[in-house]
Fold this sequence. Notes:
- Two copies of one chain form a homodimer.
- Chain A has 467 residues and is an alpha/beta fold.
- Chain A folds into two domains: 11-135 and 320-466, nicotinate phosphoribosyltransferase (Alpha-Beta Barrel), CATH 3.20.140.10; 137-315, TIM Barrel (Alpha-Beta Barrel), CATH 3.20.20.70.
- Helix content of chain A is 37%, strand content 19%.
- Chain A has helices at 11-22, 51-60, 65-72, 78-85, 115-120, 122-146, 164-173, 182-188, 198-202, 207-217, 231-248, 263-276, 292-300, 312-315, 419-430, 452-466, and strands at residues 29-35, 46-47, 92-95, 101-102, 109-114, 150-153, 178-179, 223-225, 255-258, 283-287, 307-310, 326-332, 335-336, 353-359, 365-373, 381-383, 391-393, 398-401, 404-408, 411-412, 447-451.
Amino acid sequence: MFNYSLTYTDLYQLSMAQVYFLKGKADEKAVFDYYFRKIPYQGGYAIFAGLQDFLKQLEQLSFSDEDLDYLKTQDFEDSFLEYLRDFQFKGNIRACREGEVVFSTAPILQVEASLIEAQLIETILLNLLNFQTLVATKASRIRLIAKDKTLLDFGLRRAQGPGGYYASKAAVIGGFNGTSNVVVGRDFKIPISGTMAHSFIQSYDSELEAFRDFALKRPKNCVLLVDTYDTLNSGVPNAIKVAKEMEERGNKLLAIRLDSGDLAYFAKESRKQLDAAGLSYVKIAASNQLDEYVIKSLQEQNASIDIYGVGTNLVIGKPDGALDGVYKLAYAAGKPRIKLSESLAKTTIPHVKQVFRTYDTNGQFNGADAIALKNEDQPKQIHHPSEPFKKMNVENFEQEPLLHLVMENGQNLTTNSSLEEIANFSKSRLALLPLEYKRFDNPHIYKVGISDALKQERDRLINAHKS
Amino acid sequence: MFNYSLTYTDLYQLSMAQVYFLKGKADEKAVFDYYFRKIPYQGGYAIFAGLQDFLKQLEQLSFSDEDLDYLKTQDFEDSFLEYLRDFQFKGNIRACREGEVVFSTAPILQVEASLIEAQLIETILLNLLNFQTLVATKASRIRLIAKDKTLLDFGLRRAQGPGGYYASKAAVIGGFNGTSNVVVGRDFKIPISGTMAHSFIQSYDSELEAFRDFALKRPKNCVLLVDTYDTLNSGVPNAIKVAKEMEERGNKLLAIRLDSGDLAYFAKESRKQLDAAGLSYVKIAASNQLDEYVIKSLQEQNASIDIYGVGTNLVIGKPDGALDGVYKLAYAAGKPRIKLSESLAKTTIPHVKQVFRTYDTNGQFNGADAIALKNEDQPKQIHHPSEPFKKMNVENFEQEPLLHLVMENGQNLTTNSSLEEIANFSKSRLALLPLEYKRFDNPHIYKVGISDALKQERDRLINAHKS
């Protein structure tokens, strides 16, 4: 739906690019890492999402005449603008598979391209991957708690403008079953759902008449909203009447929906009324400010809810609202590069790299990822990147490289996976992560360390800059 | 940049529309209110933004063949899909002016259209207005604290996907001076700014060489980023050398930028070094996790910062992330409509309405907005909408109606105001709001009440539904 333009970027990318161009550095090769520093929601893991959209956008990114005319008004040189006219990304990208379980510090994706190319795609890369990873991670937390209940995204109205498009999509990667968002259903083949608002019932003089018309004219997957006036004395009894009438026509009411009040209480009482009327097949859907904590509480109360509709908290990734993903130069002009900081934790990790995941003897994730030089063998021990005396032996664990070539010379190498395939992959990976990393309160910290060789190189660069 | 499709909506809008259509209610008139319940950021006011974009989208909204083909797979009836093929919004809209200072409960906008039209535009309306109002309000809080300092939006990389487009724009309505977001600069004629990232400096063997090349090839509005290796011992001294070289070429360094560490301390020390070198004209820009509270603290410390670059916290409207704006049916089929709730505060206010703002004798906002029936004269007293015994006399205050006709039969009546005009209007309105409503901690609560006539009507409907 949305085609990004190359002007969907920060001005400084273009300013830097002009300097590189005019100084003859246009073709100088560089390597950038994409990673994040802090796992969102004080959680123990994140779900990497957005890769396929990013690669798709990369293949079509260019500057339009309108863009170039505009840039001419912003003090760019003609020769540079002519260069931009033919600009296309022709670099290489290595990345984790979309849906992978990822942790802070280790590169999730590496871009290897000319300095200009790598710089011009930075903002779009961060914009797309940060947000989708944030939402997929939120969705995955909700899925963990909701077990096999149906999870639907209802968030579009409170989403951050057109950001809602990717939110509904990323939610499915994290384990949601469907969305109310029609265009996303169309574009990504996601099941869509939703039936009526309170306004529908209000527009009739009688709630019963409103239910009747709806069941008659939209009988498939019919869900009746029962809390417009009085849930237990009006909404549910009227829904039961209409469900019985539907039975006579050979239809079945799918569910009633609760959207206010104490959901645990109203669900329990509604369930009783439905069961007493012989409508045990009619499901109960609930919505209203849900998130993983409210759903956890409802589940703990055995709240008779079969379908959760989650809105705002999901699509804006509340409370974080943003993943702090960054894009840092690791290699340029034939040399590894570093950025220092007052704290070692914010000092970057230089060089072209590979990330290894370690496995225990049961084939579960072993609680440690190893960042190594790209051409290194599997690392034997890893060092904590900011606490110099913390080490861990990883020699005897099975290891798997996580970064795979996904784009070569600007060509997308990934097969166009369906969203369902990505979601299934994510689910299978999350199944390998032990429970202690998944709990909401103070999850166990997954270790991410650097190899001997990488540590040596990093220490060397730190010392060189300090002297 | 983004053209919304009418499928950028919740499925239930289409489900309800089909029932209205098949039951012959397609042309039944309805009135919906747009308002919010909770002022964001625990603040005392909000800035209404997004109206112009919304009206522009409304004029072009339709269903494409692709949309209709997709809907056919979702159990919609052919006759209804044929109706949608020619669908265009032809209703009327009354709204506050964009940039207006607004409060909870009172309608900011009213849609008067057929039930189907009003329903089909709901999701896009909420999606656009909620988000822009959220960000404009955030920007306005930052502007209040930053006084006449320059405020720049740097948030695109952490924005919620394409939501970043409207975020950068709404920030200007709230008082920001510019953005790093190039496409928004192009589309809305906003000043754009930004110079270099750490990667630019890292890509050179020497920080000084990097600064030199940049100053030479991008001399206008040149800002040097001084914290890549060591701010006070390397970054600032190198910037001073390059500033002097620029002077020899007749150029002037605009600013240095700090992006880490204790900004108050580094700004003060940098200022000393710059002044000692005779570079008192060189400004200091600061960025890194800023929001209104951090800037308040920096201002209180006289931190020598001239330019604030605000990113994530602005563009995602942190910590709220969403405005809880709703769209409620107030009138349909010739009758006022109400939705009850367990609490009076969530019970809707029925009828076609007007909102009056009251003024004190100095021409300042008087701390009370009055919601009245549309055709009523100026109300004499107002009642708290959820605390029955609270009343206020407003008879002797000058009053101004806030809802103006902005769209008639689908035609946009607003002149296409520039963003600057909207921002200026907003500034002039905010100047009329007394300080006690603007403070961050426990701001005074602006009263919003309903007129005698409206209260009578509402009570009548509540009682009718209860019996």
